Amino acid sequence: MHNNNDMKNEINSRLTQVFRSVRLLLHIISGLIQSAAYPHLGQPAQRRMAQKWSARLLAILCIRLRYHGTPPPMEARPVMLAANHVSWLDVYSLITVCPARFVAKAEIRGWPLFGWLSRNVGTLFIERTKRRDTARINEDIADALKIGDRVALFPEGTTGDGNALRHFHASLLQSAITVSARLYPVAIRYTGMSGEISKAAPLVNISLLESLRRVLRQPRIDVELIFADPIDSSGKNRRELARGAEQAIASALSLPLPHKTPEKPSDLPDE
């Protein structure tokens, strides 16, 4: 009897995963079609399109999103977001609440489907191995902020498992100072159904495809965004901004501050 029930549950689970995978693929294709029109739309239409598509993506993946604190109001500008980095899902979780352009490593351009999507919606790509690319990307970020786009980045420079914070690098926060932007620290946390830190959400030492498989196998993942008070960049240097964001996010997630490591020009944010 137990064996029959187990077999039925296994079949149902597999069918659910297949169904969700098909819906996901169709949704990504619809996103690629929409993204072809994206550059030709005004900012409000772009934000609505990105928000709606991202919210639908999370729904298909059975990811329940909640947020606390106050996101930047629509009329606020210039605005930069700095968040801890756990997963490729961070991008779509943030866009659902607060549409923004993201700074991403250049390798993401080569990702199947998601790379094309990222290019079409104005992602700012950086060559992390080239030190001189920092100045170029800071100019690009400043230009985007000046025209009223919000820009989001992940100062840790890579993804973590959600149980600890990494040192926040300051190199790409220079653009916030250049245009006197307000910096909004955002803490991101993923939990499973019983409230424990999710092991399925982090993108650490696995491919995007394997990460997708892990997410699709979960009945549900909860993602929580905590918007801390904004930091005014006026009169601050980039390291002060980095430490302020790091402290706000560590406090929101009840995590210890990371050990200090020397700043290096090559330490650039990941996706």
Brief rundown of the structure:
It is built from 8 helices and 8 strands. With 271 residues, the protein is α/β, with parallel strands linked by helices. Helix 4 links the parallel strand 3 and strand 4.
Describe this structure in words.
- This protein starts with a helix and ends in a 19-residue tail after the last helix.
- Helices cover 42% and strands 15% of the residues.
- The chain contains eight helices and eight strands, in the order ααββαβαβαβαβαββα.
- The protein has one domain: Glycerol-3-phosphate (1)-acyltransferase, CATH 3.40.1130.
- The relative contact order is 0.18.
- The C terminus is likely disordered.
- The protein is globular.
- Strands 1, 2, 3, 4, 5, 6, 7 and 8 form an eight-stranded mixed β-sheet that branches.
- It is an alpha/beta fold and 271 residues long.
Question: How are the elements arranged and paired?
Answer:
Layout: H1 2-37, H2 43-60, E1 63-69, E2 79-83, H3 89-97, E3 101-105, H4 114-120, E4 124-126, H5 133-146, E5 151-153, H6 174-178, E6 182-191, H7 208-217, E7 221-227, E8 231-232, H8 238-252
Parallel strand pairs: 1-7, 2-5, 2-6, 3-4, 3-5
Antiparallel strand pairs: 6-7, 6-8
Helix pairs in contact: 1-2, 1-4, 2-3
